[in-house]
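Inputs:
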Amino acid sequence: MAASSSKAHTCRPQERWKIALITGVVLIGLICHQGCEATDTDIALDAKATLNHRIQSLDLLVFVFLLALTVLTIWLFKHHRVSWLHETGLAVIYGLIVGAIMRYAGSSTPLVHMQVEPEGNPTYTDKLPPDTLWFKYPVNQTNTTKLPEGIKTYAYVFRGQVHDVDENEIDLKATFDPEVFFNIILPPIIFYAGYSLKKKYFFRNLGAILTFAIVGTTLSAFLIGGVMYGCAKLMPKYLSSSLSFLDTLYFGALISPTDPLTILAIFNDLRVDVNLYALVLGESVLNDAVAIVLSGAIQNYGEHYSNTGEFETTAFLRSMSDFFSIFFLSLLIGAAMGCFTALLTKFTRVRDFPLLESALFVLMSYSTFLLAEATELTGVVAVLFCGICQAHYTYNNLSEDSRQRTKQIFELLNFLAENFIFSYIGVSMFTFPKHHFDAGFIITAFICAALGRAVNVYPLSWLLNIKRKPKISTNFQHMLFFAGLRGAMSFALAIRNTVSDARQTMLTATSLIVIFTVIIQGGAANFLLNWLNIPVGVDDETEQLNNYQVHSVYNSMDNSHQPPSDGYLQDMEGGRGKTRISGGGTDGILDTPIEGANGSLSNGATGSHHHRRNSHEKAILARIWGNFDTKFMKPLLTHSRPTLLETLPNCCNPIARLLTTTQQLTQDGGEFRRVDSDSDICIDNDSVNGLTSQTPGGPGPAGGGQAPGRRNSLSRSNILNETNHIANELSLVTNNFM
Amino acid sequence: MAASSSKAHTCRPQERWKIALITGVVLIGLICHQGCEATDTDIALDAKATLNHRIQSLDLLVFVFLLALTVLTIWLFKHHRVSWLHETGLAVIYGLIVGAIMRYAGSSTPLVHMQVEPEGNPTYTDKLPPDTLWFKYPVNQTNTTKLPEGIKTYAYVFRGQVHDVDENEIDLKATFDPEVFFNIILPPIIFYAGYSLKKKYFFRNLGAILTFAIVGTTLSAFLIGGVMYGCAKLMPKYLSSSLSFLDTLYFGALISPTDPLTILAIFNDLRVDVNLYALVLGESVLNDAVAIVLSGAIQNYGEHYSNTGEFETTAFLRSMSDFFSIFFLSLLIGAAMGCFTALLTKFTRVRDFPLLESALFVLMSYSTFLLAEATELTGVVAVLFCGICQAHYTYNNLSEDSRQRTKQIFELLNFLAENFIFSYIGVSMFTFPKHHFDAGFIITAFICAALGRAVNVYPLSWLLNIKRKPKISTNFQHMLFFAGLRGAMSFALAIRNTVSDARQTMLTATSLIVIFTVIIQGGAANFLLNWLNIPVGVDDETEQLNNYQVHSVYNSMDNSHQPPSDGYLQDMEGGRGKTRISGGGTDGILDTPIEGANGSLSNGATGSHHHRRNSHEKAILARIWGNFDTKFMKPLLTHSRPTLLETLPNCCNPIARLLTTTQQLTQDGGEFRRVDSDSDICIDNDSVNGLTSQTPGGPGPAGGGQAPGRRNSLSRSNILNETNHIANELSLVTNNFM
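Outputs:
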């Protein structure tokens, strides 16, 4: 402790790019110009700053090239229809390769640190260590005369705690700040998930999605936490001692959220059954939000509420209330900002200038994230619900140009962010200095992850199936289980905290689980879909046509609208021996009209009856919201009909008039509805005003460059004709196959 | 020096947002989780980290709201056709207001620093101060038992030199890193400038543009440097002593580049004469590049080459060679990367997947910047020429979707970056701690800036007018002088270095010049255009039609193609009393057919003769390049005809075949040319293959949301018909007014 230590640590090149990532974005301008009185030290500092900048640029460049390479290879794979490896898997593999190269080839740059103490007699009056240290350093002047000014003062800013003073390996400069994930990478991904959500199918399956996401994730987290804690007792001493129940619970929370990316890309390519798609997407979008809040609550429990680390009721309750209040307040802020943007775009004519409009849209969406973070809520959750509201309301008010532009921009951002994070998962396996391999823990983690997923899917499906007659079939359950890939959120949560051995082991296990599930499960999804006889090649469109045809189109605005009977075209693919779930239904569940998987056709009428009964029993909440949405929210926030003048009681007429635009009053009744792909929050709100054609896609993942609204120009009779025509054709097809 | 100093500095709230800006992007995760053994200090640190994060988010939020407000007000102004204040001016004004509020209202947070010295006996073996300091700090345990582990080690990272140890005001945490401008804000602006450049008019006026940009900027820099240095001797002692000639020269270099933004927005709105537009745009795009390299060379001179600070021939020559080598190597890298992207998009079918294609495009463009920075060149310059190449070659290979998308993305990025920087200029006037007001210097700077602009415009115009018969009219010269607004680049260069009083005074002067020129000159541009009788309301289109009609359309591929005679429709606006310069001509200059400004009409035939003579005399270099481009570059890099098979000598056939795509061979001859708005690098390359209609706009600033290629479907006869029709109409108009 007495001897001064000025050790030269090696900053391995594989760690450089992480520095680059942190600092490359905000390059620290170390350039200290001294006019002409440059000293040796100044010149050396200057040279070092230049070198740092170069290295940062170079590392970032390697990474950008890696992404470009990924893009090219993805194209090649798509071009040659390679289905056994998907783009995220590819990004991970490239990341692994580059990480290995970075690790095992390359020189090192020295990184010097020095132990210091306060000048003179230290008086510590504060609880906190100082924000900056000022350090006097003797400087070698170029002109050899050593002046008294040869001492310069340098400033050092607080970085964090050094946990392992003895361990030379720890390299503060190379610790990639995991907050980047939460503040840069995740928000666009999550926002896009919300913005591109196909709300129709999402709300149809709302019950199941909410059950899986909220109950399932929590259940899974606690189960994994418990089992891991039990197993930890069997692990090496150094691990088990540092592994508290809170730690394992945290692990449970972080490993529970599923990542939709790979699996949905496959589903999309194969046009898999839309309800299965909605279940997987909806669940994984929501369980990301649940997991981040849950893990935050667990952290809080450990840090603020619990004194002993053991179970305490009050601390537990406070954490629970944290969980719910943070989740719902974040939701509220996100939704409010989305609605505010809708109001802005509705009551200004900013849509005349698409560039301004798009800029406004982007700025408002980003400010939602910031607002939530500034109020100590969860920005990621807020941004998700902001995205949903933007798609549901604001999107309707945007000009055609802005619709395209915002969709495309967020699609691209999402693509880049996703591939970045998966590449980084690969690279970090080799370069992140705080990995800790422990075979026992990793194996347990793998088993627990599968177990957690199973406990999420099977019992809850069973529960849902008890409550509702049309069941989620066993094959669908298997697929749901199998679709439980882990991804960005798990990794981001795991890398956020790598202080202890236990946490480092968790990071390693999480990385491996992500890599395994993305590459192996993602690759096998295709085969499994086949093997489980999940219907693929389903056209979103036919289902919609189906809806149009079957239920009455002129429902009044009260709740008496007819539920659709969807059994009608139930087995358009039946001849190909696929099971088929009926699309549409106000109820939030899947039904399996076919018990035997192969080739059998269910009775359309029966399916229809099921629906009719269930829609009234089950989806009351959803229907109430749907009506409220149609009557008040949409007229207020968009240019849709009916206007508030019609839906509000007479006494509110002046206000209603104020909130109704001329456009709303003068439009021909369909113009602004038509483009809203997701206006049917509960299937049929659209039919309230007579049939308006729905545009598939909307700001959807597949809708990227396609002209939205292929049927924009169709009149009602056209649609009916077309529907009849297609229905006839299809019944012909099914007849042929029977 | 002996007493320990732990002073609490106040970090004024107006400085907070700058912290937010730096760290908000990459949030430093200070969260140090300690499991359950949390100490007072840990909890306090945690709370402080949370608070910091909240404040950062809040500050950034204020800024995002500011931008959103700007967007809304811009809309309002556009909506009500307010022309006396433009969006950049607006951003500056809002910035000023918010800056003032931040400064004069708000509480303060304490920022603690401590003077430290090496532990034990210091041994300084290195030239450089250590990268990190490790500092032991006694920690208050929550459980009152003071353990020996109650001492924790915290790490501090190197930040920079403290220049004013005595001055309490200096607040390192609040120094906004100016490198952000060079690495985040400027690249998208500059790239977009290159990408959206209307190359046709740019290359037509290449001679004048290059003269103004390279010669003019250098001249202006040296003149301003000299005059300022002279005047500095009359200034207060503390300033004049710290103001070396290099400093004033640096000031000259940074204040010389003009910013096209405001003025071009106005030109765009009014559809001002395209050649004037091209001159202003081209010059300001290039002089940004010249200025950044020039100022770098001046810095290098001071730091590395000169020992005394006085003039040294070798040092000067080395700086000059720096200047040229950095400029041209950057240009080369940018162009090479652009061409590489063109090759990638040509020889892969990545265009089948627009999202991948757009991602590739963005990644390659960004990697150009990184590559240049990694090789110690100037990223900004590289990115400019990359943008030009991307627009000239790659754009042709992109799918329609990617064209739209890339245009729109960069347009939006550009818009946000520009408004951000102008808002920041306003805000920083109040919040940046290193402003230094000195009335004398500021007034001198204003005068010098005007002088520098004058010396750029008038003598060079005179020189150009000597060399070439068709002159740049006096009114155009006045407008060019007046269009010399200063903007982003000047500010970014000024804020990069604020070490000395002199530099701080420069920053203040630059900020004020930018604010003044943007608000006052920008606002007055409209009136001046009127007053100087500059033609407005010129349709890009008519000029093109004019070109089509007049010159022969079936020129062979040799150089014998006919230059256009553009005098034909020379005064379509003549009746409204505007001067008119003839559009088109291979020569890189403007002509002024009308000497008296009002209502006179020039003789079309004379104009035409001028052109015919001059195009052969003047633009040989441009024509050689144009031919080379059409014969080799375009066939190699795009799908254009003629193919390399036709243009390369026979011996190279195998290679030529390899480099020619099937698409190129099988296309119907016009498909891929049509969309290339800028293929006429020297007016008429297009006519080589017969008449292909040109799409105005391309990735142009005004082309944002418009469907590119309104005349895509027109056949040659259509165009000729249309042309004749319009020509007839126009001659009618002119006849009526004569």
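Remarks. Chain B has a mean pLDDT of 70. Chain B has 26 helices and four strands.
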